[in-house]
Amino acid sequence: INNASSSFAAAERVKTAWKNAFFAYVEYGYGKDELKPLSRQGIDTIGMGLTLVESLDMLWLFDMREELQSALAFDRTSTGKAISLYTACSRVLGSILSAYALTNDDRLKRRALSLGERIAAFFLASNDSIPYARMASLADGVIAPESEKIASGECVLEFRELARITHRRDFLNISSRHRQQSILFSSKDQNWISYYENVLLKPALQLNQPIPAAFYDQVQQMHTKLYRNGHLLHNASQQLRHHMPQSACAWPGLLALANTAKFKYLKLVQTCLKAHVSTTTGNFRLAPEAVNFNALNNDMWPAPTARHSSLRPETAETLLYLYRRSHDSKWAYYGWLLFQAIEQDARLSQGVGYAQLRDVDVQQSYHDLMPSHLLARTLKSLYLLFIENATMSSPFPASKWIFNGAGHPLPVIANEEETIIIKKKKRIIIPGVGLLIKKIGESASVAALRFAAACNRVGHPPQNVTHLCEQLSYTDSCQIETIIIPTKFGNFTCEPWRDPTRAVLAFFRDAVTRGLRISREQLQVVYSALCKARPCFEALPSPLTLALGGGYSLTVEPWEEPVDVVVKFARVVLANNNSVSNKEYHRSLAETMVHWFCERRFCARTELGPTLRYIKESLVVECDFWESPEFAVLKLSSSLSQQAKKEALNWLCERRQCGQNLHTTLRLRVWEAANESVGELLCGPLSDPADCVDEFVRKSLNVFGFELPIPDLAAAVDSMMQWLCARRICSRSVTPDLSLRLVEEYESLVVRGWEDPANAVGKYAKKTGLLNETILKFAHGQLCRRRWLCAPLPSRVGLEFSGVGSLSCREFEEPADCVESFAHKAVSGGHTLHASDLQYMLNLMCTQRKCNRYKLSVVAHALIMHPGKTAGRALATALAKTTNVFVLGHDRRCGRSINNSENVSSQACFLVLRHPADRFISALAFKKQGGEHGGERLLGNQCHRWLADRHLADVISDPHGLNTYCQFANASVHVSTHCVFRPLLWWLLGGSSAMNDTSILNVSSYIHSDGDSLVALAKRRGVTFMCYDTIAADFDRLIRPYCDVASACHLKRQNPSNHTLVLGPSGGTYEKKRRAAEAALVPFINRFYAADLALYNRHCGRSIPLNNDTDVSSSNSAAAMEILQTDANDVTSTSY
Predict the structure, then answer these.
(1) The pLDDT value given to residue 237
(2) What CA dihedral angle connects 873, 878, 882 and 887, to 10 degrees?
(3) Which of 333, 370, 670, 1049 is deepest in the core (most CB within 10 A)?
(4) Share above pLDDT 70 across residues of the chain, in percent, rounded to a whole number
């Protein structure tokens, strides 16, 4: 960059880069504040189209007339979002004033005037002319309640220019008073660069006046305090550190602008440039946000907490000011290096602009944001630097233009024009709160209500609406009443000072915490009624559904806070998978989710909350953002003293809400009269009551024989919710039912609130035959928008098997079943299939969608039938890692057909035999304890209810009751008998087609057969027996040889059902009754299980005296007791 030609070429390169960035914004983020180039979408922070507004002067400079006209027509200067004084004045108002000076377009003048009147609230709400730093709603003139005051000269330049073009003395007064107050009260240790720039230096240059001597004197004092060997110390909380942020690189440029050689700003420039080679590469790259220094040798390195780069403009602006002062081309050369660094490190491919960096030492560590200052300041300064070096002139000469704090050129005012006092719009100043301005066409009452609602939204004390209205007008009616609307769950009340929208949402949130049933439709009804009675200034938030990985989705309802929903989601995901190594990732993921929701709707809170760490001596208690303090303490070792736990809990509760009762298990006994049944609803730690109720109802409806009218069930659900929500904070209501009419000629898809959408769609498709994938996906999507967390609809998957045929597995089908069906058809058609091919097919399908089963029975070398629960669990666990052995479900069978006509495979077939008395007692105990893990303690489980207060003698004396309530069906060899009671003959007589009862031939001839005949039948069918009492030895002898690796097949001990539930405890006065019950079981077994008894005695016979307390290990195998016995009471073995 040492001649005009090369410098002009560099300017054209920057111009092209600027246009590329701008057009990327236009294509993907037009109208939004900034562009997220990786996501290819816009993002709003203040809702004013910031990038577009700040590009006005460059669109004029590059003669982009069509784009400029479009941008001039864009007007979103009235925003209800929070905004800082710097952004409102320097970035937005400054850009509009600059564009007006360049184009003389009256639209911009009107826009600047309107914006200036609202920005005046920053100053007028203050009682000392020192403005507040932040406004909660610029459109309503309401100051943020937590805002501090700032005396850094913001708006001095802009309000002076606004006064010039509007001749409004009030704007000039604000500018002058603020400058005077800043000189008197500014804390020069903080925001000191802004103070010198906006208070002392640029206001003088704007008026073409000499720089005041105070500037040089105070700069000398500041340099004495902060300057150290080429860098500036950072003053944080009255502590000086060898730390220099990129923003400090504006300082040498300002000194050059002041045209003074008195201070060593060239060394400061060298430091700023050296920061670009402080990365590990050593090349000129983008500089980190801040650098630290070694006080001894002045070495620098990226500050650990500021390794990112936000493409800041200060160095580029300083190079421009230095060139203007010296006309030395070396500054253009450094500018070229900076531009090349931007192109190399921040430019994205495929024309989507530029992105900030998360870490300057990590290539392509992009942060998904293209800041507006890249176009407004960084690239603008580089373009001006190169074009001025090429032409020796400037589009914005210093004699005519002064750049404000956001890089927008404002005219130098040769002579201050006369200003006048004009009649202003009616306005009321409320100190510390804001400025109420009555809009054109707005009544006094509506203006008062609007302002009060805005104050209520951001947390200011209630405003006296009637008083405000009367101050605005003496003619309008100011009698504003409280609105009361009756609803199903109480009267909704909205006082005049409350924001109507937020009041309705708060009312519905309260209903949720009380366990009441609410819906979007109810919300809309109440909101509409309210808005008819009073103006509503905000629309209701829309429900938002975020697509998650793996096809899951997360929905936030209008009345819900996105942060709360994301925290609840984190509980569901992390409660049982709290990996320390992934905590940062989990937090980052949750923050991303919150950010996504809050980009699209108002969020009262946007922070997840910190991870709390209580440390005292060797005790460390960590409470993550999704945990309650009680739950965090509950995880501590039981050896810790109660006092230590109490101290930790008190410390945590001071910093996070306690009392949500998320650490306990809630147990609710539910009685349902229509079915004469009792259920037990369990709601574990961290679980939301609505999730617990949905699960309880869903499982209850799957219970045999349970029927309940929907209105009655809805009333029961409401009662359960209210009971739970009185004991635990509820975060959501139960989901309402939904009906979808998908296709005219088909029935509607009706999904109850507790149903899983994917299962409901699958059942509907199976029932109706409507298999159109597009329609099913649409239906699932509509349902998921009503579910807070929704599992994906399984995708339809298909495979082509060369030379055999194609396999298609529909959404509601299990892939393993599809593969097995395909294998049967292929073999029947004369094809030869290898086990490895079939397993590969299943594995491939399971990579494309979720599978509930990953093993195939058709590829196994051996199949095992197990009528019992305990042996089945032990065998399934032992064989989980091998595909050579498959444990069949309770309703599947193996072996050849009785007439030997069906023999489709050479698979070995095994059947586990257990003494029918032991098996019957175990079955009763299983049912009585509530099934697997207590999972049958459900509403409508008649068997569990019937057995609740009965022991063995009661049961066997009442076969009719057992039939009626427990699917005993006189222990038939048909599926009408529950699998835990079904005789072994069902498995022994069944054909290889498994569940087809018609394959059972001549059943009656085997019912009273002797053991020899049944053993012969088993041999005919190719069934090999394993004895329950010797199962460990039999497993080693018969099954282990099929395993791939010996260590993969290890039969481990399992916990069986507790037989004392049926037999009663041993010893004491109850012993005689217990023994009598066991004796009475003999005729019962002979009546219903004669064939099983004969088979068992023939193959696994044992001769143990009646009620001998010797366990099974004394007769056959000590290993059986090692594996299967829970405790001494689980079973006394007996002989019949």
Answers:
(1) 55
(2) -30
(3) 370
(4) 90
Q: b/e string for 953-965 if b means 16 or more Cβ within 10 A? A: bebbeeeebbbeb
**Angle between helices 106-124 and 65-73 in degrees, nearest 10:** 50
- Under DSSP, is residue 54 helix (H, G, I), strand (E, B) or coil? helix
976-1000: b or e for each residue (b if 16 or more CB lie within 10 Å)? ebbbbbbbbbbbbbbbbebeeeebb
- Give Cβ neighbours of residue 1028 (< 8 Å, ≥ 6 apart): 868, 871, 912, 913, 914, 915, 918, 1100, 1120, 1124
- What lies within 8 Å, CB to CB, of 139 at 6+ separation is 78, 79, 80, 118, 454
What mean pLDDT do residues 1110-1125 have?
30
Q: Which strand (E) or helix (H) includes residue 713?
A: helix 710-725
What does the pLDDT read at residue 928?
85
Q: Does residue 293 sit in helix, strand or coil?
A: strand
1116 pLDDT more than 70: no
Nearest Cα to 1117, choosing from 1035, 1060, 1049? Answer: 1035
Give the list of residues 6+ apart from residue 73 with CB closer than 8 angstroms, or none. 107
The DSSP code sequence of 233-288 is: -EEETTEEESEEEGGGGHHHHHHHHTT--SS-HHHHHHHHHHGGG-STT-SS-PPP
Using DSSP, how many helices (H) and how many strands (E) does the chain show?
A: 45, 35
DSSP H/E element including 315: helix 314-326
What contacts 24+ positions apart, CB below 8 Å, involve 182-185?
Answer: 182/130, 182/151, 182/152, 182/153, 182/156, 183/214, 185/128, 185/130, 185/151
Q: What confidence score (pLDDT) does residue 417 get?
A: 63
Q: What are all long-range contacts of 309-312, with beta carbons under 8 Å and residues at least 24 apart?
A: 309/345, 309/346, 309/356, 309/357, 309/360, 310/356, 310/371, 311/286, 311/342, 311/346, 311/354, 311/356, 311/371, 311/373, 311/374, 311/378, 312/246, 312/247, 312/249, 312/373, 312/378
d(CA 800, CA 974): 38
Residues in Cβ contact with 830 at an 8 Å cutoff, skipping those fewer than 6 apart: none
Distance between CA atoms of residues 507 and 493, nearest Å = 9
Q: For residues 433 and 143, is the Cβ–Cβ distance under 8 A?
A: yes
Note the helical H segments in 74-227.
85-86, 94-103, 106-124, 156-166, 169-185, 192-195, 202-206, 213-226
pLDDT at 1008: 63
- State how far the Cα of 985 lies from the Cα of 631, in Å rounded to an integer: 51
Residue 357's H or E segment, with its range, is strand 356-357
Tokens linked to 960: 């009719």
Residue 509 contacts residue 560 (beta carbons within 8 Å): yes
pLDDT greater than 80 at residue 991: no
pLDDT tens per residue across span 285-320:
999 999 988 877 778 888 988 999 999 999 999 999
**Mean pLDDT of all residues in 1080-1095:** 90
419 vs 500 pLDDT, higher one:
500
Residue 250: its pLDDT value, please? 92
Residue 963: pLDDT band (50, 70, 90) is very high
Query: What single DSSP character describes residue 168?
Result: B
Asked whether the whole model's pTM tops 0.85, one would answer no
Q: Which residues of 1105-1128 are buried (b: 16+ CB within 10 A; e: fewer)?
A: eeeeeebbbebbbebbbebbbbee
C-alpha–C-alpha distance, residues 254 and 345, integer Å: 28
Residue 74 DSSP one-character state: -
For residue 1089, which of 990, 975, 999, 970 has the smallest C-alpha distance? 970
Q: Quick check: 761 and 750 in contact, CB under 8 A? A: no
CB 463 within 8 A of CB 455: yes
- Check pLDDT > 60 for residue 931: yes
Per-residue pLDDT, averaged over 947-964, amounts to 90
As to burial, measured by CB atoms within 10 angstroms (0-12 exposed, 13-18 middle, 19+ buried), residue 1102 is middle
